[in-house]
Amino acid sequence: MSVNYFPAEFEVLRNTDKCIKCRACERQCANEVHFYDADFDKMLTHDDQCVDCQRCVTICPTGALKIHKNPNEFRQNYNYTQQIMTENYRQAGTGAVLLSSMGNPLPYPVYWDKILINASQVTNPSIDPLREPMETKVFLGKKPNKMSFNEDGSVNTKLDPHLELSVPIMFSAMSYGSISKNAHESLARAATELGTYYNTGEGGLHKDFYQYGPNTIVQVASGRFGVFKDYLETGAAIEIKMGQGAKPGIGGHLPGAKIREDVSKTRMIPMGTDAISPAPHHDIYSIEDLRQLIYSLKEATEYKKPIIVKIAAVHNVAAIASGIARSGADIIAIDGFRGGTGAAPTRIRDNVGIPIELALASVDQRLRDEGIRNNVSVVVAGSIRSASDAVKAIALGADAIYIATPALLAMGCHLCRSCHGGKCNWGIATQRPDLVKRLNPDVAYKRLVNLVHAWDHEIKEMMGGMGINSIEALRGNRLMLRGIGLTDRELKILGIAHAGE
Amino acid sequence: MLEKEGQVRIPSGCAISGFISRDGNMISGEDAVKSISYMHDRSNGLGGGFAGYGIYPEYKDLYALHVFYDTNASREQTERFLDRHFDVVNLSRIPTRKHPNITNEPLIWRYFVTPLPTKMASSQLPEKEFVAKCVIRINNDINGAYVFSSGKNMGVFKAVGFPEDVGEFYRLEEYEGYAWTVHGRYPTNTPGWWGGAHPFSLLDYTIVHNGEISSYDANRRFIEMFGYKCTLLTDTEVITYIIDYLNRRQNLSLEDVASIIAAPFWSEIDRMEPEKAEKLRYFRNVFSSLLITGPFSIILGYNGGLMALNDRLKLRSMVVAEKGDMFYISSEECAIRAICPDAENIRSPRGGEPVIVTLSEEGKRKCL
Ligand code: SF4
Ligand code: SF4
C-alpha cells in the first residue's frame, strides 16, 4: 500500500459494550467504512473512507457509534494549517484540481449574525399572529410605473406575468442528476402543497414531474440540458442561469457515472457521457445578448411566463443587476458566495464571490437609486439558514428567498460535503438505486412542508413583534434592522444603523 | 445634543380633529381651536397645528406659500429663488400675537405666487408638479428655510406648543374657512423644531395623523424612487407623499388610494365579488410597498373635501359625526361635542374604511 502522507480526517468510535454486531452500519455505509472480521468476531473500520455523514450513527440500534474529528495533529502552524497541508499532499498524489461540495465552510463573516431585528414597545403595538391575520403572500414580477385606465375609467388590471407565492420562500435550483429522483419528487410535491415553487436546476425535467409544472421553475443553463418546447411550456417561470454563488465564473460538470438511463433521457444526452456546462453561455457575451435570450424565451412561451435571471454575487453585482433590470428580465435571483453546490472546485468555492447580505443591500439600493426597482423582483439565495435570516433578507430588500441547503437538511442531509462523490448515504446526492430508495418521498416531502411552515410561523412571529402584519411592509424596511459589531463602511453598504442608534 | 427632526426618527402619539361645512359655509378658526382643546391630554405641548381650507378667497387662484426662516439670510436666498420661478403677487409676514407659551419663533412669511410661464414651459412639467418640485427644492437645498404650506386657497399654521396656544398665536379667529383640520402632538422626545409640527402638507394636501406606522422605511424607500425626499423622517410626511403620488400623479381616486394604503386582508379580498377582488389584487401586487401597517388614523384635507382613514386593524381611535351640512372627524367624541353638542350619527368607521366628505354642488360654487 502506498503511503498516503496524511491521516484519516475522522475517527469512528465504537463502544464495544454496546455494539451487538448487527452489521447494520456495514450495510448502510456506501463508503465501506465498517466491516466485520469473522476471525476476531469484531466490527472494524476503514476510518480513512469516512466522510462523517452520520448515517451509521443515526441508524445504529444501540447508539454504539460516534464519529469525531481525528485528534491527531500536525505540528501547530497558523499559516500552513493542517487543512492546507493535507490539500497539498492530496494534489501531489493526484495532480488534480480539488473538488468540494455544499457551501463555503470557511470562517468568513456571516453578516446575518451581525444584524438584529426590532420589536415594538409602547408607542406602537405589537400584533399577535395567533389572533390577527398575518400575511406572507408575495408576488414576483415586473410592476407598471404608470397606471392605465380602461375606456370606462376603471383601472386596467392587466399585468406582466407574475409568480404568486403563499410564503416568501422557494426551493432553489438543484438538478436531477446532482440530486436523486426521489429528492426531486419530494421538492416538487412540497412546493405544490406549500403554494410555492421549486427549481429544476440545469438538468431538465423528468417526465414523471410534468404534473407539478404549475409549481416548477425550469432552468435554462449554459449546457441547455433537457431544454425543449414542452419543458419551457410546462414551467411556471423560466430561469436563465448565468452564474452560481458557489462557483461564479465557471460551468458545471456532472460525471458520466451519474448519467444513467433516466438522467440521460431527461438531460437529452447519451448515457455515460460527462455532462459539461460551459462557463459562459456560448450565445451570451454581453448584456445585449442576454436581452436576446430573454426575449427568445418570452417569444417561445408567448409572454406568459416571467423570466428569472440568476447571477452569482460578484464584486460589481449592483451594476450587473441594474443592467439585467433594464434588459427585460422579470425577476433577478442573486446567489451569494456561501451558496451550496453539488460539486465545485474548492479554490473557487472558497475564494470567489461576495456575501449575499452585502450583494443584496447594494443591489436593492442601486435599483432604487436608479428608480428601476419596480422593473424586477429580487430573490436571494446563498445561505439563508433560518427564518431570521429570511426576515433580515426581506428587510434589506429581497422580495423572496431561495433555500436549498435547509431543504436538503429537511430530507436528512448532514452536510458531509461529499456530494461530488455520488455516494450520498441519505439518498439525496446520488443516482445509485440502492441509495436513492433510502429517501422516501412520502416522508421527505412532508418534512419539507413542515420546515417551511415552521419558518413561516417564525417569520410571522417576528413580523408581529415589529407591528407589521403583511410581508410587503417588511420588504426593504431597513429601519427594522440594526448592525452589531460592524464598521461604518459595512453599515453604510447594508444601509442600516448600528445597534443603540 | 438632541438631534433635529429629520436627523432622527421620533415616534409620537397624537390627537386629531377636523370638520367641513359641505355647503361651503365659512367657519372661524376658533372652532378648530376649541375642539382640539378638549383633547389637551393627548398632546404634550411639543407640537400643534391647523389647516384651513377656503381661507384666502381673494387670492384663490394663487399658490399660498407659508415659510419658516431661521435667519434673514435664508429668507433673502429663498426670495431670490421665488423671484426666479414665480410671479410673487403679494408677500408679508404672517400676523401673530405674542403668547407666553409659544417661544423661539422663527421668521414666518407668506407669499401668494403663480409660476412663471416661461420657467414652467422650459421645465416641461405640469403646473402642480412644477410647484411641488420648487417646494421640495427650497426645503432640501436652502439652509434655514422651510415651506410648510403650498396650496391654493388654503393654509397651514403650526408651531411647537399646545394646539390651542398655537391657534391663539396665529390669531386663527381672524380666518374663516369651509374646512379645518387640527393636530396636537405627543412626540416621545423633543427636537423642538417648528417644521416638525403637523399638519404636513404638499400643495393642497394636508395630513394630520395619529399613530406610528411600522411600514415606514418600506414606504419611504419606495416613494423616494419617484422624486420625493423624506427629510423629516415622519410618518405624516411619507403618507402625504404617498397620497400625492397615487391621487395626483397616478390619477387614482381617494377610495382607491385608501384601498392601497389600508388594503383589505387577502382573506377579505377572496370573499369579494370577482371584479372588485381583481382590482384589489392588482393594487396589492403593484403597490405592495405602499401598504401602511401599524397604527394610524389620519385626516387628509384637500381643496374640496376631507378624508378620514384608519389602519386596517383600527389600532387608533377615530369617530365621525354629522349635524346638518356639517361633518366632524376626531380622535375622541368629546372634541366633536365641544363644538357641536347635539351632533348626530356618531360612529366609529371600521379599520381601512375611508370616510370621504366633499363639498356639495352649492359648496363648490361658493368655495372652489
Ligand atoms: S450498527 Fe451499531 S450495533 Fe450494529 S454493528 Fe454497527 S455499531 Fe454495532
Ligand atoms: S447531500 Fe448527501 S452527500 Fe451531500 S452533503 Fe448532504 S449528506 Fe453529504
Count of strand segments of chain B: 18
Major protein interface: A-B, 39 and 46 residues
How many distinct folded domains of chain A?
2
Taken in chain order, the helices and strands of chain B follow as EEHEEHEEHHEEHEEEEHHHHHEEEEHEEH
Number of strands of chain A: 21
CATH fold descriptor of chain B: Glutamine Phosphoribosylpyrophosphate, subunit 1, domain 1
User: Residue ranges of chain B: pLDDT <50 for 5 or more in a row?
Assistant: none
**Gross CATH architecture of chain B:** 4-Layer Sandwich
Tell me roughly what share of residues is in helical segments of chain B.
25-40%
Structural class of chain A: alpha/beta
Output the CATH class name of the largest domain in chain A: Alpha Beta
Over all CA atoms, what is the radius of gyration of chain A?
24 Å
- Distance between the amino and carboxyl termini of chain B: 47 Å
Count of helical stretches of chain A: 15
Kindly summarize this structure in a few lines.
With 501 residues, chain A is α/β, with parallel strands linked by helices.
